[in-house]
Amino acid sequence: MQDFKLELKLLEKYYGVCRLSSEDEIPRWALQSDIYSITKTHDELSIVCNEEHIPEGIECEKQWRALKVQGPLDFSLIGILSTISRALAQQRISIFAISTYDTDYILVKDDKRNEAVEALKAIGCEIEI
């Protein structure tokens, strides 16, 4: 692991990861979330937001929980996502990662939440629940 201690916080809400068409406009419902991430490519419009705001009929995966890496993180820090993803991959826990200017968010399915927390504690991470 790195020369610094990783501190994470498990956020309370449930999130959904949605897939819309690349031609779709950003929907208003996504912007109602306390945290949201929007990525548009040539292939799709991907939205992560509180699942309570996702309307019926939207292609999505729900029941994600977010672990926020407490930041802000300096851009010179190396290996944060690889350290976290390696520890979770060794426990066969799938992730969905979101990076922002200041920090990273690691989403894990709610049914793997406790296993993820224990795996990260085992590598020396401090987790606020």
TrEMBL record:
Against Pfam families, the record matches this protein to: A9CJY8-like_N, ACT_7
Q: Which residues form the CASTOR ACT domain?
A: 60-121
Q: InterPro entries from the entry?
A: A9CJY8-like_N (IPR049447), ACT-like_dom_sf (IPR045865), CASTOR_ACT_dom (IPR027795), CASTOR_mTORC1 (IPR051719), UCP008459 (IPR016540)
The UniProt entry, under Gene3D superfamilies, shows: VC0802-like
Top-level taxon of the source organism: Bacteria
A9CJY8-like N-terminal domain segment(s): 15-56
Q: Which PANTHER family match?
A: CASTOR ACT DOMAIN-CONTAINING PROTEIN, CHROMOSOME 1, WHOLE GENOME SHOTGUN SEQUENCE
Q: What is this protein called?
A: ACT domain-containing protein
